[in-house]
């Protein structure tokens, strides 16, 4: 049995998955099995992998299960001590796996990931160095958009690990999973479908007392477009232009799911102290949507349809948490 199972999840990513698979097969750490799970692609992705990478185990779904559903299916079938989720637009450097796997020698680590850059070359622009969350409950990738000058080159605990390339301890996942029906559990929340599932799962791992570890020596490249606006909020005009260019479904999932993260997982004194800041930010987001992106409001009926289910999940999560209010307060920096 391999120590690590890796799930590369794709949906019509034939033009991207080749270099990703090659980067995995070139790892110095070799005690792994690589799976390619296809979410009912129509571009010949499955045939491409079967022809060019016969050593990869293929799982072909008959419908698109989304990010959450696809990886949940993998978690349920994996047999290894550690499991990894991998996006089809991420390429790993050869030492990535060996560096991240070593972090699990610490028994408190439930999840770990490395540093992702936008692309090779100079200047190196950071895509993320772990998920952080502040008193406004704004979840973000630490350092995103900054030039990499070594300012994050220290092994440290972070709030969470990005789902683009993260490794999890199976025991931690079992403790953080959600009971959603009689004898049916979810790891990533399948009602999210896509976006913010990594934040939500990280939050539940932390509520169970597990730590998430950032390993700077583990380097990968992730040239995603969804968070590529230079300067972020500081350059408001370009931010509006960039954000409005994103597909409508992404903007709707992004707004809906970040609210569900708070509703499901926040609690106690930290929540009470943070309410003024949370309300201020959410009013600002709503005002922005009302002025610049009214089409995003189309997700409101779906939000209220799912709200009772989210509140039920909240009751389950908080009834099983192991962390106290005092322990959670230090997360919101």
User: How many beta strands in the DSSP annotation?
Assistant: 14
Q: Could you give the distance between the termini?
A: 40 Å
What is the strand content? 15-25%
Order of helices and strands: EHEHEHEEHEEEEEEHEEHEHHHHH
- CATH homology group of the largest domain: Spore Coat Polysaccharide Biosynthesis Protein SpsA, Chain A
Helical stretch tally: 11
In short:
By secondary structure, the protein is of the alpha/beta class.
Features of this protein?
membrane, alpha/beta, Spore Coat Polysaccharide Biosynthesis Protein SpsA, Chain A, two-stranded antiparallel sheet, Nucleotide-diphossugar_trans, transmembrane helix, 41% helix, 2 domains, transmembrane, 14 strands, 333 residues, ten-stranded mixed beta sheet
Structural summary, described in words:
The chain is an alpha/beta fold. The chain has two domains: 4-221, Spore Coat Polysaccharide Biosynthesis Protein SpsA, Chain A, CATH 3.90.550.10; 232-329, no CATH class. The chain is built from eleven helices and 14 strands. The strands form three sheets. Strands 1, 2, 3, 4, 5, 6, 7, 10, 11 and 14 form a ten-stranded mixed sheet that branches. Helix 6 (197-207) runs parallel beside helix 8 (248-265) and helix 8 runs parallel beside helix 10 (300-320). The relative contact order is 0.13.
